Amino acid sequence: MVMTLCAFAGVASAQTHPTGAEVASIGRGRVLAEENCARCHAIGESGESTHPGAPAFRTLSSRYPVADIAEAFAEGVRVGHPDMPEFQFQPRQIDDLINYLQSIQRPQH
Ligand code: HEC
C-alpha cells in the first residue's frame, strides 16, 4: 500500500509541479519581489497591499497576461507607477519575477 501511494505521488508531482529549475527561479523571483515590491504590493497568496491602489500581485492576471509585464520591464517601462522607483532588472531577473508572479496567480474563472 505504501509503495502504491509513493508511486502515485511521484506521477502526480511530475505532472502538476514545476521542475527543479522552475522552483529555483520562482524562489529567486520571490526574493526580488520581497526586496523591491513588497513595501507597496501584497506579493504573496494572501494579504493586502500596503500602498493604496497598488494591486495585489496574485490578482495581476485578471488585468492582463502576466507575460506582458515581462515585456514592460524588459523595455524599461514603468508600468503606470506614480510612486514607483525605476527598476533596472536583468533579463534573467525578469524571468524569475515573472515565474514567481505566475506561480501565485489565482485560478481564472
Ligand atoms: C512605491 C510603491 C511601489 C513599489 C515599490 C512597486 N509598486 Fe507596482 N504599483 C504601485 C502602485 C501605486 C500601482 C498602481 C498604479 C496605477 O494603477 O496607476 C502599481 C501597479 C503595478 C502593476 C500594475 C500596472 C498596471 O498598469 O496595472 C504592476 C505589474 C506592478 N505594479 C508591478 C510591480 C513590481 C514587479 C514591483 C517590484 C519590482 C513594484 N510594482 C513595486 C506602487 C508600487
Roughly what fraction of the amino acids lie in strands? under 5%
How many domains?
1
Overall geometric form: globular
User: How far do the termini sit from each other?
Assistant: 37 Å
What's the gyration radius in Å? 16 Å
Number of helices: 4
Task: Give the % helix.
Answer: 40-55%
Oligomer: single chain
Query: Order of SSEs, N→C?
Result: HHHH
Mean pLDDT: 79
Give your account of this protein's structure.
The protein has 109 residues and is an all-alpha fold. The protein has a single domain, classed as Cytochrome c-like domain (Cytochrome Bc1 Complex, Chain D, domain 2). It is 50% helix and 0% strand. Helix 2 crosses helix 4 and helix 3 runs antiparallel to helix 4. The longest helix has 17 residues. The chain is globular. It starts with a helix and ends in a 5-residue tail after the last helix.
Question: What are the defining features of this structure?
Answer:
mainly alpha; globular; Cytochrome Bc1 Complex, Chain D, domain 2; 50% helix; binds heme C; 4 helices; single chain; 109 residues
